[in-house]
Write a structure and sequence with these properties.
single chain, alpha+beta, 4 strands, four-stranded antiparallel β-sheet, globular
Amino acid sequence: MDAVVCNTVLGVFGLMGRLGEKVRDELGLAYYSYSRVEGGSGPGPWTVIAGVNPVNVPRALEAIRGEIRRIREERVPPKELADSQAFLVGSLPLRLETNEGVATAILDMERYNLGLDYLQRYGDLIREITPERIQAVAQRWLNPDAYVLALAGPPEEETGRGSTRMGADFL
C-alpha cells in the first residue's frame, strides 16, 4: 500500500503527479509523463513513461530523475499526501464499477491474503500511511541512478519530426 500511495504522489494524482507537474507543465519537455508500480507476490518494475520530443530526452530524463531524488530525500508535505490519499479512497468505487474491477479486487484479496473485509478497511489502510512511510518506500525501491531506459518512436527521417515515447524502469 505504501508503494501505491508513493506512486500516486510521484506520477498519478492530478495531471499525473509530480512528474506531470514538473516535466510536462513546468518545463514543457513532455506531452505526458506518469508512473506506475507493478508487482505480484514479489517485486516488480516501477515504471516512468513520458512522451517526449527526441531533442528533449536528456533534459526530460534528468527532470524525472530529479523528482525521484526529491521523493527519496524530502518528506511529502501533509496536504499533498492527504490529496493523494483522498484520490485513492475516492476512486475505489470507480474501480469496482465493472465486473473486471470486482473480479480484480477479489483476486487481489485472495492472492495477497487481505481478508474479506479489505474493501471496508481500504480507506483506513490508505489514510494511515505517513510521509515517513512514503519516504522509506521511495528510498528502498526507487534509485534515480539505477534504471533501464527504453526509447521508442519513428526515426526522424521518416516523419520529418521526431517523436519519442520514453519508458524507464527504476530498479
